[in-house]
């Protein structure tokens, strides 16, 4: 009996063409759709095992080199194939939202304005599933927000619950910018458990993840998860802070193509997520903080704490009805959104996200937009006292009478007497080293400073067109930030405080 002819790269391509239909995303990322089975898009890396299995009966399994050569040809073919959008978990198309339940039978939910329906036919949008993807329960009607609020140990009128529920409802618009949810609290506050409960409503997971130090590693995690999670954040680098900004508004990523040495592929990631920490992480710039919704929790009272396993078990029981309640609010919000404007959301930075909260004000009782706007203002101004360089800036301008026009270098010189002794050290706070760094810092922190009462603008002066910083402060801010001139002034202030008690 003659020996079997070794499989070639051409054989790999021929078998792949029988098993899959190939497409590419608008960014050029290749995917394979099985011709038999669920209508799902698979990354090319996931089809290698299926291809190898197809050669088992013929006893001529391709070598690694042959498989790699075949996959390179398949990738080239797919990058010239039909273009289609590929979605993870949720998609929004022509006013309708689709939720992939992740079940083996391909069940999905069609969410239209005013109604939702479970379907088992081919979905109008193309979903993909990753290795971390887990199934959601089949939703049931008749549930309420109260079930989730009870698990979180909050009332449905608590602003923190409204912020969390509004965040969940807004996930129906995955194509728009949705802030990250950040739960802050000391040990024993239940922040991690609460974050896990909220995440599990739409993205089942056994535990919250961890944020990596490199952008590349975080991109991999974000791409495979509809809801990015990270527990116990204490510090982020400037690069990660910037990455979080782009993640919310849309990050374009370029990576080396699989099975190639030089070819690259681009794709976009727009995600939201749930983070937790004892405090707001050091190194978080105001533009990143502005893309977060902070929920603060105190230590749970004695006798009210419950084991995580018990809470997750209760969520498992109530999950179908909680999901049903969420879908009903999503459908109702889709019904109201066409009649709303950004003004209804109070000018919240992420207009569509804010309008979802305005819709909830009509569906439920008012308070969702107010909670969102109050939290947004507090989140920015609260970072100032803990940021030595910004605090020094405010005090310098306040002492100057609330108005300054100065170069960044001269402004830094005026701030340097307030520089902490440990500034610039690994365990110490950041401090600008040059006027250029200070100028960049002021641009990044403009909104936080405005909330604190200081308007910062940039211009040029004179024939030399010298760059200058123009600053003006409100009267209230001058009183707030003007430092005492001497120990005697501090004693007078303390005496006044005692007299007013």
Keywords for this structure?
globular, 3 domains, alpha/beta, 501 residues, six-stranded mixed beta sheet
Account of the 3D structure:
The protein folds into 3 domains: 75 residues; 237 residues, Rossmann fold, CATH 3.40.50; 113 residues, Arc Repressor Mutant, subunit A, CATH 1.10.10. The protein has 501 residues and is α/β, with parallel strands linked by helices. The mean pLDDT is 87. Strand 6 and strand 7 form a beta hairpin. The N and C termini lie far apart (103 Å).
Which fold name fills CATH's third level, the topology of the largest domain?
A: Rossmann fold
The counted number of beta strands is 19
The CATH architecture of the largest domain can be named as 3-Layer(aba) Sandwich
How many helices? The count is: 18
How confident is the prediction overall: mean pLDDT? 87
Category by helix and strand content = alpha/beta
| Rg on CA atoms, Å | 27 Å
The helical percent reads 40-55%
Number of domains: 3
Strand content of the residues, in percent?
15-25%
Strand order of the largest sheet: 4-1-2-3-10-5
Could you name the CATH class of the largest domain?
Answer: Alpha Beta
Termini Cα gap: 103 Å
| Oligomeric description of these chains | single chain
Instruction: Point out poorly predicted stretches.
Output: none
Report on the biggest sheet: 6 strands, mixed
Shape: globular
């Amino acid at each position: 009996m003659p020996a079997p002819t070794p499989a070639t790269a051409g054989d790999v391509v021929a078998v792949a063409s029988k098993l899959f239909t190939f497409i590419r995303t608008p960014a050029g990322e290749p995917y394979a759709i099985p011709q038999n089975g669920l209508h799902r898009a698979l990354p090319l890396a996931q089809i290698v095992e299926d291809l190898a299995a197809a050669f088992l009966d013929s006893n001529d399994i391709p070598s690694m080199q042959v498989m790699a050569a075949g996959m390179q040809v398949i990738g080239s073919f797919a990058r010239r194939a039909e273009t289609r959008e590929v979605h993870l978990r949720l998609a929004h198309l022509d006013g309708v939202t689709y939720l992939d339940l992740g079940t083996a039978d391909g069940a999905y939910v069609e969410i239209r304005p005013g109604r939702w329906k479970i379907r088992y036919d081919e979905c109008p949008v193309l979903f993909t599933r990753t290795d971390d993807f887990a199934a959601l329960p089949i939703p049931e009607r008749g549930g309420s927000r109260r079930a989730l609020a009870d698990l979180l140990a909050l009332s449905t009128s608590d602003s923190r619950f409204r912020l969390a529920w509004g965040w969940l409802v807004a996930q129906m618009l995955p194509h728009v910018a949705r802030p990250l949810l950040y739960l802050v609290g000391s040990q024993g506050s239940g922040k991690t458990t609460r974050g896990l409960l909220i995440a599990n409503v739409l993205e089942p997971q056994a535990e919250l993840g961890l944020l990596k130090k490199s952008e590349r590693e975080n991109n991999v995690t974000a791409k495979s998860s509809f809801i990015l999670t990270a527990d116990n954040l204490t510090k982020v680098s400037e690069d990660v802070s910037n990455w979080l900004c782009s993640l919310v508004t849309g990050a374009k990523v370029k990576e080396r193509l699989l099975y190639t040495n030089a070819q690259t592929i681009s794709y976009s990631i727009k995600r939201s997520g749930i983070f937790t920490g004892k405090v707001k992480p050091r190194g978080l710039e105001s533009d990143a903080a502005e893309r977060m919704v902070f929920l603060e929790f105190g230590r749970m009272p004695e006798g009210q704490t419950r084991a995580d396993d018990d809470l997750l078990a209760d969520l498992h029981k109530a999950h179908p009805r909680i999901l049903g309640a969420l879908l009903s609010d999503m459908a109702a919000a889709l019904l109201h959104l066409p009649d709303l404007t950004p003004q209804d959301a109070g000018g919240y930075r992420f207009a569509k996200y804010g309008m979802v909260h305005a819709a909830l004000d009509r569906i439920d009782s008012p308070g969702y937009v107010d909670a969102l706007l109050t939290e947004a203002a507090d989140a920015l101004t609260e970072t100032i006292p803990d940021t030595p360089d910004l605090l020094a800036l405010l005090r310098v301008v306040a002492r100057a009478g609330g108005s300054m026009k100065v170069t960044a270098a001269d402004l830094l010189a005026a701030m340097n007497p307030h520089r902490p002794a440990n500034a610039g050290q690994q365990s110490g706070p950041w401090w600008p080293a040059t006027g250029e760094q200070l100028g960049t810092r002021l641009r990044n922190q403009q909104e936080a400073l405005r909330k604190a009462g200081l308007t910062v603008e940039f211009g040029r002066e004179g024939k030399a067109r010298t760059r200058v910083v123009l600053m003006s402060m409100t009267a209230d801010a001058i009183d707030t930030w003007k430092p005492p001139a001497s120990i005697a002034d501090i004693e007078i202030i303390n005496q006044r405080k005692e007299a007013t008690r």
